[in-house]
Amino acid sequence: MAYNNNSFKRFRVLSVLALLYLSFYTKTGEARRPFACDPNNKLTKSFKFCGTSVPISERVTDLIGRLTLQEKFCCIESYEWWSEALHGVSNVGPGTKFGGDFPGATSFPQVITTAASFNDSLWELIGQVVSDEARAMYNGGAAGLTYWSPNVNILRDPRWGRGQETPVKIPSWPVSMLLAMSGDSKVMQQETSSRLQHVANITLPTILITGMVLIASTSMPSFGECTFMTLVSIKVQSLLYNFRICVSKQDLEETYNVPFKGCVLEGKVASVMCSYNQVNGKPTCADPDILKNTIRGEWGLNGYIVSDCDSVSVLYDNQHYTRTPEEAAADSINAGLDLDCGQFLAVHTEEAVKRGLVTESNVNNALANTIAVQMRLGMFDGEPSTQPFGNLGYKDVCTPAHQQLALEAAHQGIVLLKNHGGILPLSNTRHKTVAVIGPNADVNVTMIGNYAGIACGYTTPLQGIGRYSRTIHQQGCADVACNDNEQFEAAEAASKQADATVLIMGLDQSIEAESRDRTGLLLPGYQQELVFRVARASRGPTVLVLMSGGPVDVSFAKKDPRIGAILWVGYPGQAGGAAIADVLFGTTNPGGKLPMTWYPESYLAKAPMTNMNMRADPARGYPGRTYRFYRGPVVFPFGHGLTFTTFDVKLVEAPARVSLPVSSAVNSTVLSSANALKLDHTNCNSVSLGLHITVKNNGTMDGAHTVLVYSTPPAGKWSAAKKLVGFKKVHVPAGTDQRIMVGLQVCQHLSVVDQFGVRRIPLGQHQLQIGEDLNHSVSFHADLRGPIKSL
Ligand SMILES: *[C@@H]1O[C@H](CO)[C@@H](O)[C@H](O)[C@H]1NC(C)=O
Ligand SMILES: *[C@@H]1O[C@H](CO)[C@@H](O)[C@H](O)[C@H]1NC(C)=O
Ligand SMILES: *[C@@H]1O[C@H](CO)[C@@H](O)[C@H](O)[C@H]1NC(C)=O
Ligand SMILES: *[C@@H]1O[C@H](CO)[C@@H](O)[C@H](O)[C@H]1NC(C)=O
Ligand SMILES: *[C@@H]1O[C@H](CO)[C@@H](O)[C@H](O)[C@H]1NC(C)=O
Ligand SMILES: *[C@@H]1O[C@H](CO)[C@@H](O)[C@H](O)[C@H]1NC(C)=O
């Protein structure tokens, strides 16, 4: 392309607007001024792109066509794209600032804790609160409107420092939260569940939020032709940046891509983030197959693709993927990258255009994708206060209702791992004095984990327990690293005096965090010895409470009869201490379930962090990953979680046979030799099956139960491992029963992926396992009588 000075000038201006990250803040607490189009300004009023009734695509084209005029205001007020809202409005990104009228925001439990609730509607409620608070802060000039969350990478390795951020393997959760956050309630309204409709009425969804999804894993080092990078303790950043992973087509389609696809297709995210690492030989931010063909093409992203911060410079500087920085800029824009978190594109794209490495039209496309999102958010519609939700302000942040939801979420995320002889709940008449011991006993910010903000306020575990009984507090260790045992005697003495002992142990961000993976799964330092000694000294029952994102190998405590009960509380958020106390004293009946396998320490030696394979490889001693493929010993299995009552689950009604309509492309000759149908040979999208189940609470305390449904396909050239295909949580008062229905979509839930990455529906007997001990078999048949003419 012939370089023309004028087009370059326009591009430079736009690059400031959209490709660079620059911040502009009004003083915190001051109302935000219009971003661009001011209806009171005669000049901007006349612009087509300021016309709120003009379709967005026309407004975008108009704006791009006028860019020289745009210079004036675009450069004075640039927009900071990067804000975070993983489990509450966060100030991790530069786009959000607390202070003034906005001293804090509601800080919900860390994502993995909410995952343990197995409660679909909870995600929506949290999403609505976060979006209301975000819009209120935007109106007050304290935050942006584009949030780079959630993180939907799968929790592949128990050492991963960012495992705490992930909703693990349930793609519907980030989708629910995204829909609630973006205000796209259409899907919610289609739900027949009255609970969801009720939810949709409580709070009007407010902002269009951008979802951030990191393609593939972000941590690991490189070896061999297509692998490498180490997740284990990435102290050397260059290792992280160099990580090249090798993923099979089968694992990509079956596991890694699933949550990303769900967020784009169903969650309607407004953005996707590409990562630092390479996948199968290409940096994700310069791979047109991933960005252009899959995300924008096949999945239909309506929004922008943004790099992880400085990942374009990383592909040149660290990975030496291109010879020149201009090629790196061009490769990424040509691959479909629209926005750079960093300055690399702003610095090098000009020269790349000059050299003809990238066309102006590709640059315009990138700009159009970002500006369209700003327009959808109302940033070109004048005064924020005159727009929908413009009335939200500081009084809508940290409201009593929002903080109550943070407490409920913490209640629901707590998992009772052990309750030997029913020592829990404690009683405030029998346990008048409680020794509260451990480095996490009186913590506040530890409870909100990473990608958090400033909470409205905290209730620490010590304060929470203090609401029920007199407490004697001993830290036991100076911090979670617990490097010595100097304070152990004082801790033992405390437990000798008390009627019950609660040890609050575990991890914090100094042990597991972004760029900080663990090297082991045991409790750090001398923590295990502290627990052991205090449990021996304790006069009353001893309870171990674990705060952590990832699993901890506490086999010693599981076996030890002196440690009567174990609770895993994740990082339970601002109200975590109150929730822990409510569970300890039985005001709340725990109903959470582990959202991931708790592996023993011995697992680590056999599963290198760098091995991306999901499936076990017994010949090489590789144990495989997750509850699906790992068959070895566990500390606690996926789905484990006890309660203070008992539930009796019965299958009432379920189909024994399912017919799949087949396309005319398939004839009886082909069928007789096939034991599985390709998805595009059947319209199984229209086929679903319902399992009708009763859940009876035959104990003495009201409680909630989650019924998990797994399926095992008939044998074939795919994995016969069982997988979670559905679940339903139900609240059941003591002595009553509730009927529930778990609906399964045949295409989505009961298909398998062969070694070529092709999804198929196996014909024959599928085994469904309902809860712990109910089995039901359904046979799948191809229905040739009514072949579909065209699909
Ligand atoms: C929710 O809104 C719908 C539509 O306006 C209405 O029919 C329904 O009764 C409302 N539900 C509740 C629980 O308020
Ligand atoms: C959190 O705990 C630390 C250490 O005890 C204390 O200094 C700080 O004031 C607490 N912050 C809040 C908001 O309670
Ligand atoms: C309640 O149901 C469970 C599960 O079927 C069963 O083991 C238990 O004996 C029942 N308890 C009572 C009191 O009926
Ligand atoms: C059935 O389909 C196969 C593959 O498309 C084709 O080779 C074969 O001739 C067809 N047989 C009949 C009976 O139509
Ligand atoms: C899910 O969470 C919401 C909000 O806390 C709560 O009202 C509802 O009862 C929960 N559902 C179940 C089945 O526990
Ligand atoms: C249910 O099926 C699974 C998998 O086929 C099997 O391991 C289990 O023993 C069965 N349980 C019962 C109660 O039949």
Automatic annotation (TrEMBL):
Record keyword Iron-sulfur present: no
GO cellular component: apoplast
Pfam families: Fn3-like, Glyco_hydro_3, Glyco_hydro_3_C
Domain Fibronectin type III-like: 705-774
SUPFAM superfamilies hit by this protein: (Trans)glycosidases, Beta-D-glucan exohydrolase, C-terminal domain
Identification of the protein by name: Fibronectin type III-like domain-containing protein
UniProt entry keywords in alphabetical sequence: Glycosidase, Hydrolase, Signal
UniProt record, GO biological process: arabinan catabolic process; xylan catabolic process
SMART domains cross-referenced by the UniProt entry: Fn3_like
Signal peptide location: 1-31
This protein's record includes keyword DNA repair: no
One example GO MF annotation: xylan 1,4-beta-xylosidase activity
PANTHER family, per the entry: BETA-D-XYLOSIDASE 1, SUGAR HYDROLASE-RELATED
